[in-house]
Design a protein that fits this description.
By secondary structure, the protein is an alpha+beta fold. The protein has four domains: 89 residues, Thrombin, subunit H; 162 residues, 8 Propeller (Methanol Dehydrogenase, Chain A), CATH 2.140.10; 130 residues, TolB, C-terminal domain (Neuraminidase); 252 residues, Alpha/Beta hydrolase fold, catalytic domain (Rossmann fold, 3-Layer(aba) Sandwich). The chain is built from eleven helices and 43 strands.
């Protein structure tokens, strides 16, 4: 009787589990597109950061700002949002409806901004200690907490608002095409802003960008009664480019000086950094050809070059992405990241230009430097040494070179080093783990688990995600891929496939992170009965310089060949219907989508390309010439990559989508290709988002992905 009862309970439990899983719905499209940012957002700790000093953590919990010592296990309430509002209202008359982004100046002082105001707060006595405002309409604001001031732009010029002083205008340009204090070189070379405060805030450096030689490109905004022409400066490959200069403002004597950087007008001034003593600026000067770089040191008082510390050359390209970073307790030494030896590595230099040593020799890429500890005896960093799919945290002896891996669990780790260098916040995920945040010590030993996030998609059925690799074949190396099987997968059935592709430089779509870094739209498609494949081809990151630069001068060649190895693999799977294969990508992925379809006629039954580059001579100078050189220098490469030359090969159904206000991949790309299809009598489908830039965002994205999904359903869903 007991045995019968036990068996009955086991069978009942099985059926209950089976039916509970079966009753879970698959993703709907809105959930897939909006859900990751709202209802299905992965649990996180808001505002988690180290407080300057030793190793106390700050975090936001509801209406409270909490301070925690993870070693002692002590947790204290610092203050409530209402208390912050009370202090703020007394001084500024303002109030906040939610927490702003908090930054710490020192262990007793934090700062934040709201609207056009920057505020510093003494957390010990809850007093506002400084308030700096800028006018409405000010843009590109850059705050200096050390010596409170905000640099900002109005129109073409740069201004500075200082604590207790009148706003001062620093530049006075009025000719069209010239701007100050803004991003240059179209965000390439790691450039994310146009202003640079010195370490103590006594000086401000900024870019002056002269695009008067650059062609004006027309965008048409249809939202007014009569459509309005909006011209942008767009330097196309092989045409005139921008001219960059760097200026420095001395806040003490209120004088401005230009940093003297002789050379061709269209050279690049990248990776600007200050010396800790504020006496020198360091600039990576790069030729327009991007094959020769000089790291130069300049005297701030004279503007003249002191010396060239070193040069880098490469027959493909040199791409400086990280400014010099000085050691905290050895201000005469700095680190420099470079791929000169085949992988992104960290080199230790002194300010005479002497290379002391390579701190991270080996066949792996360093992806982040976290900081130093123990009087600069150790450097902490993240790298791909374990696997190109993973990121782990390491510590290396700056003098000894002895290395230690600090993270153990497979996956993608990110680290934040504590101010005293004794602990790290380790934030990671892997294929099966949405997010874990814990504190570890400098030896890699766990101290405290702060968060174990649950699966936000627990109540939805998702397809199984597989991470694997294809072995080397001929001149093609090992390639990593992500495969998603349909929900309720039946190996006896035949399924359609949608390949999602990007494939361009600086990208990596396949990693050992939550769900393999897959887009939730792919899981929506899995719920509709599709197999999904994504693969990282040659030209993508994480595999060293040779892997990424192999595409130089021949975009769309190796990348397509590698992706077709993925198609060959798909065709070997017994559950794949080889007559129902589709491909989709955006931007570089749009270029890849059309390239794959036209260079392999008959393989793809349907394809959807969004915002595609179709002819690289229409793309911008900085990115385009790095990978293709100028059209005058590489006519064969440009012709090989010009998709208009393959329109006769079209077989199957192709939908091209473009945003009419795209200032990255201008509309001309797809329009000229469309004209070529028309001239050859080829039928394609075409859709425009009239007011969208390069990426279609917000709720319009649901419309976009409905169109993409419906297109595949129309041509692939049924045999």
């Amino acid at each position: 009787m007991k045995l019968f009862r036990f068996v009955f309970i086991i069978i009942l439990s099985f059926f209950l589990l089976f039916f509970s899983v079966a009753q879970k719905p698959v993703l709907n499209l809105k959930e897939a597109i909006v859900g990751p940012y709202k209802k299905f957002k992965i649990q996180d700790i808001k505002g988690l950061q180290w407080i300057p000093g030793e190793h106390e953590l700050a975090r936001i919990a509801g209406d409270s700002l909490v301070v925690e010592d993870p070693v002692k296990g002590k947790k204290d309430l610092l203050f409530m949002l209402d208390e912050l509002n009370l202090a703020l209202k007394i001084v500024t008359g303002d109030s906040l409806s939610s927490w702003p982004e908090i930054h710490w100046k020192d262990e007793n002082t934090l700062w934040f901004s709201h609207d056009t105001t920057w505020v510093q707060l003494d957390v010990k006595d809850m007093n506002i200690v400084s308030v700096v405002r800028i006018p409405k309409g000010g843009q590109h604001a850059d705050y200096c907490p050390e010596n409170p001031a905000v640099a900002f732009t109005l129109g073409q010029n740069i201004y500075i608002s200082e604590l207790g002083k009148k706003i001062r205008q620093l530049s006075f340009d009025s000719l069209p095409g010239i701007v100050n204090g803004q991003i240059v070189s179209r965000n390439e070379f790691g450039i994310t802003k146009g202003t640079f405060w010195s370490s103590k805030g006594n000086y401000l450096a900024w870019y002056r960008k002269d695009e008067s030689r650059v062609s004006q490109y027309p965008l048409v905004d249809i939202r007014s009664r009569v459509a309005r022409l909006k011209n942008i400066r767009y330097p196309m490959a092989g045409m005139e480019s921008e001219e960059i200069h760097l200026f420095v403002y001395d806040r003490k004597n209120k004088k401005t000086r230009e940093i003297i950087t002789p050379g061709p007008y269209d050279q690049y001034l990248t990776n600007v950094a200050w010396s800790p003593d504020e006496k020198y600026l360091f600039i990576a000067v790069l030729t327009r050809e991007q094959d020769h770089m000089w790291l130069n040191m300049y005297d701030v008082q004279t503007g003249k070059k002191v010396r060239t510390l070193f040069e880098e050359k490469n027959i493909h390209y040199v791409e400086p992405l990280h400014p010099v970073r000085f050691l905290p307790e050895h201000p005469g030494e700095f680190i420099w990241q470079s791929s000169r030896e085949g992988y992104n590595q960290v080199f230790l230099y002194d300010t005479t230009g002497r290379m002391i040593r390579n701190l991270t020799p080996g066949k792996y890429d360093v992806t982040n430097v976290l900081g130093f500890s123990d009087h600069d005896l150790y450097m902490y960093y993240v790298s791909t040494e374990e696997s190109p799919l993973q990121r782990h945290i390491y510590r290396v002896g700056v003098i000894t070179g002895k290395k230690k891996k600090l993270t153990v669990v497979d996956g993608t780790h990110q680290g934040i080093l504590s101010p005293d260098g004794k602990y790290l916040i380790d934030r990671y995920s892997n294929l099966e783990t949405p997010r874990i945040i814990e504190v570890i010590n400098a030896k890699g030993e766990p101290v405290k688990r702060l968060l174990t996030a649950g699966n936000p998609w627990e109540e939805r059925r998702l397809g199984r995600v597989i991470l694997d690799s294809l072995p080397a074949e001929g001149d093609s190396p090992v390639l990593y891929y992500r495969l998603i099987k349909p929900v309720n997968f039946d190996p006896a059935k035949k399924y359609p496939v949608v390949v999602y592709v990007y494939g361009g430089p600086h990208s990596q779509l396949v990693t050992d992170s939550w769900l393999g870094q897959s887009r939730m739209w792919q899981h929506y498609m899995a719920g509709q009965g599709y197999v999904s494949l994504t693969m990282d081809n040659r030209g993508t990151r994480g595999r060293g310089f040779d892997f990424e630069s192999s595409i130089h001068r021949h975009l769309g060649d190796y990348e397509v060949k590698d992706q077709m190895r993925g198609i060959k693999y798909l065709k070997s799977l017994p559950y794949v219907d080889t007559t129902r294969i589709g491909v989709h990508g955006w931007s570089y992925g749009g270029f890849m989508t059309i390239s794959m379809m036209l260079k392999n006629p008959g393989v793809f039954k349907a394809a959807v390309a969004g915002g595609p580059v179709t002819d690289w001579k229409y793309y911008e100078v900085m990115y385009g010439e790095r990978y293709m050189d100028r059209p005058q220098e590489n006519p064969e490469g440009y012709a090989e990559a010009d998709l208009k030359n393959y329109v006769d090969n079209l077989k199957g159904h192709l939908l091209i989508i473009h945003g009419a206000m795209d200032s990255t991949v201008v509309w001309q790309h797809s329009l000229t290709l469309l004209r070529a299809f028309i001239s050859r009598g080829k039928q394609v489908d075409y859709f425009v988002y009239p007011t969208s830039p390069h990426n279609v965002r917000g709720y319009d994205r649901i419309h976009l992905m409905r169109k993409v999904s419906d297109y595949f359903d129309e041509y692939l869903k049924t045999p």
